[in-house]
Amino acid sequence: xxxxxxxxxxxxxxxxxxxxxxxxxxxxxxxxxxxxxxxxxxxxxxxxxxxxxxxxxxxxxxxxxxxxxxxxxxxxxxxxxxxxxxxxxxxxxxxxxxxxxxxxxxxxxxxxxxxxxxxxxxxxxxxxxxxxxxxxxxxxxxxxxxxxxxxxxxxxxxxxxxxxxxxxxxxxxxxxxxxxxxxxxxxxxxxxxxxxxxxxxxxxxxxxxxxxxxxxxxxxxxxxxxxxxx
Length: 230
Ligand SMILES: Nc1ncnc2c1ncn2[C@@H]1O[C@H](COP(=O)(O)OP(=O)(O)OP(=O)(O)O)[C@@H](O)[C@H]1O
Description:
Helix content is 33%, strand content 26%. It has helices spanning 41-49, 74-78, 96-106, 111-124, 140-152, 170-185, 197-203; strands spanning 2-10, 16-25, 30-34, 56-61, 64-65, 81-85, 158-162, 189-193, 206-211, 214-220. The strands form 2 sheets. A 6-stranded mixed beta sheet has the order 6-7-8-3-9-10, with helices on both faces. The chain has a 4-stranded antiparallel beta sheet with strand order 2-1-4-5, with helices on one face. The two termini are 30 Å apart. Adenosine-5'-triphosphate binds next to helix 1. One of its GO terms (molecular function) is ATP hydrolysis activity.
């Protein structure tokens, strides 16, 4: 569950990146967030993960009030979120298994549960045979699937993906988006920031379009707006 109410964000240099946004994303939804370069997509993601604090308005995410959260509550809030980035951000010196184990240990998961859960998520992303490989031994699409497995491993309520296919060819991009849809069908709320107009159109999901820090369209069934940049 994500709620934004009259959210504004002005950076210290005076840039008004977000100019009054209100939106609600319910549990179980799949939503694309699109808009031209500089429209405020990354700023929204950063406010959702607590990396930036809005200058006005309120943000609720999975029961936490992110816009005025106490410092000690941030780790608990983050545990309800799995975040995926364009550049994968895997630990190069760790194997696929160890990359996943690392984030499970960080939340104090027992060893037996770790093994079972990693086996399950690697099957889900189709990489059960790559558990002992290092990221450098995998293709870009495979690395992104490891990043998705890592985002899922602690069973978050919500997955937030910031340009997850930005470094992949069209075929791999389609695979990754299809995987995110499958994960959504298994019950996780998914929010995807993307520039991939063709992919957005293919899936027929809810699309929120922003421009100059405002929502200019919020509708189901494909990309609306016209001026998305590549
Ligand atoms: N740390 C910052 N300090 C000042 N201004 C910033 C900062 N980060 C972003 N901005 C500005 O805020 C506006 C929104 O930027 P943001 O990165 O959210 O856009 P975006 O939609 O994610 O763009 P892109 O698609 O190019 O990644 C832009 O005008 C940008 O220059």
